[in-house]
Amino acid sequence: ETTTIAENVALGSEGGGGLLNLGDGVPDSVEGRGVLRISRSTISQNVAQALGAPGGGIRNVSTVIEEFAGPKPALDVSYSTITLNSGVGGGISSAEGQVVLAHATIVGNSNTTSDGTGTGGVDIDGGTLQAIATIISQNQNVALFEPNYTGPAITGGMNFISQDDPQLGPLQNNGGLTLTMLPMAGSPLIDAGGERLLGQDV
């Protein structure tokens, strides 16, 4: 929580320029084994450098199944900014489990392969995606395929997933503990989101 992960380079083929979640998904007595939770953080300018390496910002290959509590997300990102990362799946690449995004901003990331795999923003090549009040926009795909999202149908709602300009300001200090990108005056994002995690300060 409230962490900045920036300007890292992953040299291996497993990728994950900023973060790599390799949880094995085996039920365990320790709650949350293999779960990667990111809250109120910024992940920026990270690179998965090896040829074909996935996940410039985040790579997830964890499937989490709790024996008694039922399935839980392998990757849970809330109130966080993921920007200016590059790899096969520039922002997030996930091969397993459920990914949950809530009030996340995923913009300006780049896909680095021209073979039609991956995408600039979020690439779900296994598992599922639930997104709530999340921005996935203005990402780039060098192959000129879908730049923002590839994967199964998204559950959730109140999202902005489009190449239309969300009219965000630059990544900068806006008074919080990490750098963020605020909507500018006239942005289509203003008053368009919802609430999650009631009881926490935003």
Folded structure, characterized:
This protein is mostly beta strands and 202 residues long. The protein contains no helices and 23 strands. The protein has strands spanning 4-6, 9-10, 19-21, 36-39, 42-44, 47-48, 58-60, 65-66, 70-71, 75-78, 81-83, 86-87, 92-94, 98-102, 105-107, 110-111, 122-124, 128-132, 135-137, 140-141, 149-150, 155-157, 160-162. The strands form six sheets. A six-stranded parallel β-sheet has the order 1-5-11-15-19-23, with no helix packed on it. Strands 3-7-13-17-21 form a five-stranded parallel β-sheet, with no helix packed on it. Strand 8 and strand 9 (70-71) form a beta hairpin. The two termini are 13 Å apart. 50% of the residues are buried. Residues 27-32 and 196-202 have low confidence and may be disordered.
State mean pLDDT (0 to 100 scale): 88
Radius of gyration over C-alpha positions, nearest whole angstrom: 16 Å
Task: Count all strands and give the number.
Answer: 23
Tally of individual helices: 0
Termini, distance in Å? 13 Å
Strand content: 25-35%
**Strand-pairing-aware structural class:** mainly beta
Low-pLDDT segments: 27-32, 196-202
- Helix share of residues? under 10%
Biggest pleated-sheet summary = 6 strands, parallel
Order of helical and strand elements? EEEEEEEEEEEEEEEEEEEEEEE
Shape annotation: globular
Spatial order of the strands in the main sheet? 1-5-11-15-19-23
